[in-house]
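quick q for whoever's on today - can somebody do inverse folding on this one?? i tried earlier but teh output was garbage lol. tokens:
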């Protein structure tokens, strides 16, 4: 239990990366973790686009002003949800999968950061066109992943005043 909690507290948003590539085994481990996430009605609407080409990562970095870290990341993972499979719950399901990817990255000594694209239609359209993603597939986010070039201390951000027992 303590190891799991340490991992959760250690997961931080990492925006600086070394030049070292992320190996295929690490990518597969993250995607297996993603697909172990809970899913409403077990519909599993998720799809993932892995991006390693520098030119494409640099283009993804232009999606909005908070995506700049993709210019240094050796790997991007675009998290998508098939709305024909789960129109009502694709967002929740892909959010759970995204958290699992970030935890699996941390467990492997990697760092990552969640770059939100949903619900901004303009951002989703940009990524959809760049990566040839079908129209019926929602684009939740892109994750910048790599070997950390920065160190952050674990934290919980626990705030007891936000907890209500029995009623508000």
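ok took a stab at it. sequence:
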């Amino acid at each position: 239990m303590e190891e799991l909690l340490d991992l959760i507290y250690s997961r931080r948003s990492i925006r600086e990366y070394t030049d070292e590539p992320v190996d295929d085994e690490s990518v597969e481990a993250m995607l297996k973790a993603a697909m172990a996430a809970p899913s409403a009605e077990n519909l599993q609407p998720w799809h993932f686009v892995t991006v390693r080409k520098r030119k494409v990562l640099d283009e993804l970095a232009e999606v909005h002003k908070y995506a700049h870290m993709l210019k240094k990341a050796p790997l991007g993972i675009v998290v998508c949800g098939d709305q024909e499979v789960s129109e009502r719950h694709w967002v929740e399901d892909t959010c759970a999968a995204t958290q699992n990817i970030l935890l699996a990255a941390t467990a492997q000594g990697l760092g990552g950061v969640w770059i939100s694209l949903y619900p901004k239609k303009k951002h989703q359209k940009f990524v959809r066109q760049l990566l040839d993603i079908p129209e019926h597939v929602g684009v939740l986010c892109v994750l910048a992943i790599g070997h950390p070039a920065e160190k952050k201390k674990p934290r919980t951000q626990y705030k007891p005043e936000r907890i209500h027992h029995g009623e508000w």
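fwiw The helical segments are 2-10, 24-34, 54-60, 90-107, 121-131. also The chain has five helices and four strands. so keep that in mind when u check it
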